[in-house]
C-alpha cells in the first residue's frame, strides 16, 4: 500500500462505468486498495472515455463493456478503438459474466484481461499487479500494491510469477468453504495445494481427509467415502465412518476425481447439495460439514464430453478453480526446487553437496519435465544416494538420469548415438499446447481460443480429430 501522496499522482486510472451511482463506490474501493497515489477519472461511456484518452495519458483502463455502445454498436470494436488511443495502458475489460463472447471479443481486440462484475477492490488491485508484471506494464506496476515475491508458501517451493499467482489464489480462497477444483499435470503439486488450502484456512484445527478415487476399488469406494453400517455386507462387522464423516468440520480432499464411478458421482452430488449422507446399508441421514477440494490431472471438459464425468457435478465442484502450471512453463523454479531437494536429501543421507555445476543447471532448467516436480525430486534424490558429495557434475547427472525419461538429453545426441528425447508427432504437440491453454482458463474453450488466437470451432474440430487419431492407435 502506498503512503498518502500529496503531489503528482503515482498513476492514473480511467474507470469507464455508465452507472453514476455505482461508479463512485467502485472508485472508492479501488483507491482503498491501490493507495491514494492513484488518481481515478470516471467516464460515463465510450465516447467520453475516447475524448479523455485523446487529452491525457492513463496507466490503467477499466472498461465496463456494457456502456461502450455510444462509441460503437459492437463492444469489441469499441475496445479496439479505445486500445488504440490508450498509449500502452493496461486495459482490463469488465463484463457482467453472462457474455463470455463479449469478454473474449474484448481480449481479441487488445484488452489484456477481463474480470467479471462486481469489481472487488482488493482482488482487482492484486490482479492489476499480476497483469502489469505479466505484460511488462511498468507504469501500471508502479501503482499496484507491492506484493512480496515469495520463494516458498505453505509447503510449496518456487518463486516464479506463475507460482506467485497460485499463492495469491490460495491466500484469497483458503478462508471460504466453497469447493475448490485443482487441475494440473501429474506431479505439479495438487496434493501440496490441497494441504496448503487446509493449513492456511480456518478448518486447520480439524482433519484433512484425502481419498484417492483412482486407488480404491470401485465397489469399496462408496463405503470408503460415506462409511458403512454394521451388517450392510459380508465382512461389515462394525459401524464405520467414511472419509466424509471423518473430515467433519475440516476438509475432504477427493484426489483423481475424474476416476470416480458415475453412480457414485450422483451420490456425491446429492451430498454436496444437501450436506447430508447415509452410510452404506443405513436408511437415516447424517449431517456433515466439510469443505470439498478435488483434483484431477485429466481435462475435465474432455471427461464430460466423453460422458465419464457428470456436468452438473462438475459445476457444483468447479466453484473456485486453481490450475497448477507444469514445471516446463516456469523454468525459473527448476533450480530453486533442485537446490531445496539437494539440501533436504543431503541432510537425510548425512552427505555434503556444494551445488550443481553450471552446465548441469542449464540442462535441468531447459528440460521438459514430463513428470514435473515429482520427476525432479526423484532425480535429485537418486543423485544424492548415488554420489558421495561435492558438486553435481554432468557425468553424475547422466548416470543418475537413466530412469528419468531422458531429462539429461545431451546436446548432440544423434551425432554421438546416445539417448534422444522422444519426439512427439506434431498433432500430439499441438494437442498438448491447446489442452494446457484450456486447463489454464479453467476449462473455458472460448478464452483459451482467444489466448491462442484461433477460433473455438478450430479447437472443437481438432479435438474431434485427436479422438479419431487416438482411436486409430
Ligand atoms: N512447488 C512444489 N514445491 C515443493 N514440492 C513440490 C512442489 N510441487 C510438487 N512437489 C512435490 O512433488 C511431489 C508430487 O506432488 P503432488 O503429489 O502434490 O503432485 P500431484 O499433482 O498431486 O500429482 P498426481 O496427479 O500424480 O497425484 C510431492 O513429493 C510434492 O511434495
Description:
- With 473 residues, the chain is α/β, with parallel strands linked by helices.
- The chain has 4 domains: 11-143, Rossmann fold; 152-325, P-loop containing nucleotide triphosphate hydrolases (Rossmann fold), CATH 3.40.50.300; 333-400, Helicase, Ruva Protein, domain 3, CATH 1.10.8.60; 426-471.
- The protein contains 20 helices and 16 strands.
- A hairpin with a 2-residue loop joins strand 6 (152-153) and strand 7 (156-157).
- The protein is globular, with a radius of gyration of 26 Å.
- The chain starts with 10 loop residues before the first strand and ends with a helix.
- The site of adenosine-5'-triphosphate has 16 residues, from strand 7, helix 8 and helix 16.
Give keywords.
single chain, Rossmann fold, Helicase, Ruva Protein, domain 3, 4 domains, 5-stranded parallel sheet, 20 helices, 16 strands, binds adenosine-5'-triphosphate, DNA-binding, phosphoprotein, two-component regulatory system, transcription regulation
- Report the helical percentage: 40-55%
CATH-scheme architecture of the largest domain: 3-Layer(aba) Sandwich
- Computed over alpha carbons, the radius of gyration is 26 Å
The largest β sheet comes out as: 5 strands, parallel
* Average residue-wise pLDDT: 85
Percent in strands: 5-15%
Give the termini separation: 56 Å
CATH fold name of the largest domain, please? Rossmann fold
Sum up the overall morphology in one term: globular
- Class inferred from helices and paired strands: alpha/beta
Count of DSSP strands: 16
CATH class of the largest domain: Alpha Beta
The DSSP helix count reads: 20
Keywords: Activator, ATP-binding, DNA-binding, Nucleotide-binding, Phosphoprotein, Transcription, Transcription regulation, Two-component regulatory system
Organism: Devosia oryziradicis
Pfam family, one: Sigma54_activat
InterPro entries: AAA+_ATPase, AAA_lid_NorR, CheY-like_superfamily, Homeodomain-like_sf, HTH_Fis, P-loop_NTPase, Sig_transdc_resp-reg_receiver, Sigma_54_int
